[in-house]
Amino acid sequence: MKYQPLSSSLYIKNREKFCYKLAESSVAIFNSNDIMPTNADGTMRFRQNNDLFYLTGIDQEETILLVAPDCPNPTMREVLFLRETNEHIAIWEGHKYTKEEAEATSGIKNIQWLSNFDQVFNTVMALSCNVYLNTNEHLRAGVVVETQDARFIKECKEKFPLHNYHRSAPIMHELRGVKEKEEIDQLQIACDITEKGFRRILSFVKPGVTEYEIEAEYLHEFVRNRSNGFAYQPIIASGASACVLHYIENHKECLAGELLLMDVGAEYGNYNADMTRTIPVSGRFTERQRAVYDAVLRVQKEAANILRIGTNIQDYHKEVGLIMQSELVGLGLIDQTDIKNQDPAWPAYKKYFMHGTSHHLGLDVHDVGTMHGPIKPGMVFTVEPGIYIQEEGLGVRLENNIVIKEEKGYFDLMRNIPIEAEEIEDLMNS
């Protein structure tokens, strides 16, 4: 792995928090993700199941975690199962965790090979009444491929039909929504790497460069700073393409006078940054571009200030919508008649700002966590308003990542990444 792993104390603490939420006489199982195929004998790069990673720090395929905090046999209260390596695997795939390394990473003392899983699991199941199984229950998940978790659920219920089955996902969402200090530190590194990429391209962008060249500049800077690369498929959208929210073709030439919207973030240690900046290709904003840019920046700053402890995310989004509504009136994009005649289910401002302002951030870019309950200290959110004017071929979005603090306020993980129009122009023309 490129990144510096965190201390096992984090994963010990995370497992303790999870086990505290379980019913008495319970066992919980977490499976690693599959290695996904491409074509022929090709595979995608492995990405660990984030729940398993959160509880163990183990970043390797074919891994299973078993926790049974009330098991009468104390050696079976935490067991980590690994793929047994050999000389052939070492030659073809490289080094895999030894038992000693896995213990040092996870803090779990009972490390066994996968071949022993059935025997241990059968014993623990005989001593347990409740079973917690894991699934992807993200509100926006579109699961079309059968996962290892899904296969295990079917096998487990067929073999042990009389146990009481429960969902681990609600517990994991609650826990992962609030970050520990060590997690925030990893997110800060991901944001710092993202800053380096952004500063690099400010001196690179000019009329005539292509979106894919800019993408390559980011990737170069990310990887050379121990990132695995992009946290998500980057959006490098010049001109009218900025009005396509999920534009990922990144194939056009950047033209003089256009704006360039870049939604990119580095991944570090499986934690993700999520930044959006919009810059003028020619190095200077036009008067109209600057007016729209400043409007978005004002909304971004106000939104960050009202994203605070106790706030409900749904109410927050409505409040930000009213702030945006005022800015759009000031820009002449909507008027009071539009507002008076608007559909309450789709307010007038949605024509130019049609997406939400904030989402959880962490091991997933759109991280798990409540989107309906009150905001708690330690939660990490994006703040990303935008204005998209298709008829003018002009789109502006600005996005920072913030941590909700114990006291009133927030901590901006992207505080050092240029966002003021004057600073961006100065850096592009220096």
TrEMBL record:
Top-level enzyme category: hydrolase
Cofactor(s) for this UniProt protein: Mn(2+)
PROSITE patterns: PROLINE_PEPTIDASE
Catalytic activity annotation: Release of any N-terminal amino acid, including proline, that is linked to proline, even from a dipeptide or tripeptide
UniProt family annotation: Belongs to the peptidase M24B family.
Protein name from the UniProt record: Xaa-Pro aminopeptidase
Aminopeptidase P N-terminal domain mapped to chain residues: 6-142
Domain of life: Bacteria
Organism the protein comes from: Algoriphagus winogradskyi
Any one GO molecular function term: aminopeptidase activity
Keywords assigned: Aminopeptidase, Hydrolase, Manganese, Metal-binding, Metalloprotease, Protease
UniProt entry tagged with the keyword Lipoprotein: no
Record Pfam families: AMP_N (PF05195), Peptidase_M24 (PF00557)
Parts of the chain that traverse the membrane: none
EC assignment: 3.4.11.9
